[in-house]
Fold this sequence. Notes:
Elements: E1 4-5, E2 32-38, E3 48-53, E4 61-71, H1 73-80, E5 90-91, E6 95-103, E7 115-119, E8 132-136, E9 140-142, H2 149-153, H3 156-169, E10 177-180, H4 186-197, E11 201-206, H5 211-216, E12 221-224, E13 237-242, H6 246-252, E14 256-264, H7 270-279, E15 282-285, H8 292-303, E16 311-316, H9 320-327, E17 335-339
Parallel strand pairs: 10-11, 10-13, 11-12, 13-14, 14-15, 16-17
Antiparallel strand pairs: 1-3, 2-3, 2-5, 4-6, 4-8, 4-17, 6-7, 7-9
Helix pairs in contact: 3-4, 6-7
Amino acid sequence: MTSTDTSENLNSPGPAAATDSSHPAAPDGAPVMLALHQTALGGPEVLRLTQLPRPAPGPGEILIAVHAAGLNPTDFKHRALSIFLPPPPLTLGWDVSGTVVETGGGVTLFEPGDEVFGMLPYPHGVGSHAEYVTGPARAFAAKPTGIDHVQAAALPLAALTAWQALVDTADLRAGQRVLIHAAAGGVGHLAVQIAKERGAHVTGSASAPKHDFLREIGADACIDYRSADFTDTEEPYDVVLDPLGGETATRSVSVLRPGGVLVSLVPGAEDTLVAAEKAQVRAVVLLVEHDQAGMRAIADLVDRGRLRAHVSGTFPLTEGARAHASGETGRTTGKLVIIVR
Length: 341
């Protein structure tokens, strides 16, 4: 079935996408859904609310009625450029929180009616900015009962990135020192909380107006990247988490103790690798992976009150383009979330 465009460009405020209890169907009887879809690369204006076939779960998959879906910088980048994904048409979105509607063959962990949250397999399992999405059952965990779907949708990709960087890759331990660049951003503010839970001493880099926020979520020290040089430190760090790449990554090598770890979220330049080798530190680039064990660990932190996403803005699915435009300003503290139901 071909897609049907159902709206004008999504640049102006509008009502939230319909919450369907009636499951609309195409003329041939096949169920359909609304999705934030694009048929060309470009700015936020390429995003259109479009009627598409509702997916069906395959073996090992679950079909989820999406309640909310997080928005991440990788969404902006893939909307504009073919990075990991093939060219459009495509529906973006990796974060999802919602309710299981149907299970595919062999699924034993969930059943219809269960509330779940998780990250679709990155990068090729994209598609959560829609009323329904399918994904591997083991990419999801039970949604913590103490938070709503908006909070849950803000967590998966950013929290998994922070967890996999600090815990799985750097093996951050109590008493160690960690520097987190862009610490008030989506990954950064969750990394601060995860590092504190691990017992580390946390320094966060952000603009001065965001320092109070960083201290509230647990940062021990703050650096104003606009007026201070983060390399001017009396005591080296054991771990640096760098979402920025480029010169920041290369210069971060100099603040690590020998044997320390730089985890970058941006493919590293040759200069960074050369500097790391000379300084006898480890420099790695992390690409986040879907991970049920990680999602369960994140859910446990949420349940124990040790981790919470800061949601600075929400947008209905009909205002997806405005959400992208807002996120691309680079001024967001924490996360933006698209509300579907």
